[in-house]
Sequence to fold (203 residues):
Amino acid sequence: NQGYFVFFCNPRGSDGKGNEFADIRGQYGTIDYDDLMRFTHLVLETYPEIDAERVGVTGGSYGGFMTNWIIGHTNRFKAAASQRSISNWISMGYTTDIGYYFAPDQVAATPWTDHEKLWHHSPLKYADRVKTPTLFIHSEEDYRCWLPEGLQMFTALKYHGVESRLCMFRGENHELSRGGKPKHRIRRLKEITTWFDRFLRGQ
Fold:
């Protein structure tokens, strides 16, 4: 009802197509990124009524990681909204409540075995390439994807002169979009639509 076309897909790394399709350990930001960019191209090719110069990207959790990754690797999108994201595998791996094993398992590296690989797969490494205006949304009590993950990327974009905004929700956790207080869920949606209205519709 906001006047936007909304599309999404299941890139490699997603559930539903078997273990081999879902297993992208050590490959975050590679084949999954390729799938998403091919999907974007296909959507624009299939639906010519979409203005290819006014396309946005958003996602939360893994989708927040991927949003951060995308804006560091392409200027295809005119605006982005990164929600409860990961920006730095080095810091995330030792602060998240998901467990100490998560980052080494997913990236297939530790600071002692392959520090460079962790950094290579971290969106923060590529923040100096970002040109896309980006909104960051995080909850202060999210112990899965901590506020500092969004704060690092937000600060990096500010440092490099990229238009960005950080919106923090007190008393909320990783489940803000699904189980947060109604007023906060409404505010979250308003933040996202306001951001896209500004940069995609010029309002």
